[in-house]
Amino acid sequence: MNKNKQTKRNGGYLPEEEEALDLLLTYRKPRQKRGLKKFEAILDSANVLIEQKGVHNFSLYDIADHAGVASGSVYHFFPNMEAVFVALVERYDRDFEQIVSENIPPEQVETWSDILWHHIEKSRSYINNNQHVMILILGPGQTWQTRQVDTVGDTAIARAMRRNISDYFAIPEFPEPAELLHLAIRILESIWQLSYQRHGRVTMEMQKETYRAMCAYLELYWPKYLARKEPEIVE
Predict the structure, then answer these.
(1) How far is residue 47's CA from residue 66's CA, in Å, rounded to a whole number?
(2) Lesser CB count within 10 Å: N end or C end of the chain?
(3) Which structural domain range is residue 154 located in?
(4) Would you say residue 18 lies in a domain?
């Protein structure tokens, strides 16, 4: 394993997923604060250029120029453009994980599907307001490598969804809830890819269709009304 990749991530990855990511990732992540600042600035510039030029019309040199850093600094972290896209997808997945980890006021939650709607709604708002995310997650920026990284990220997102729902309801332990939620995420991605192809965004109608499809799938395993827990503190 490349020692340069052995870095503890902020997301909720299991050790075996950390190892899987280390094998997939082709970029060098900084160890020091100064290097991390430059690394994040490079990714920020890549986001801007994706929105301005798409994914096939700029280079690592263009990223360096936009970020105001030496091209050698970019090559120090990223050997090629694919490595940049992989790092961005990993970043986006951390954002989605944070979204589905947000606490929801108990008075807004009657059933587990209310939490699911909240997750879908917040995720749709995030992706529609960040064109670069839409391009790499749903659109022409996808590659086999980024999809593999996104699959690992989706497992962490699914576990965060499970934790969030479990704060309010007693979820059946079999089949494994996080696995069911991971498959539900794949339903979401398929519908949202179609929406992006047709409309260039995720529409409200497609959000509703996503909700209906995910609920229909999960209701094969979960009753509509689960036993309610009273959260100790939901701030």
Answers:
(1) 11
(2) C
(3) 84-218
(4) no
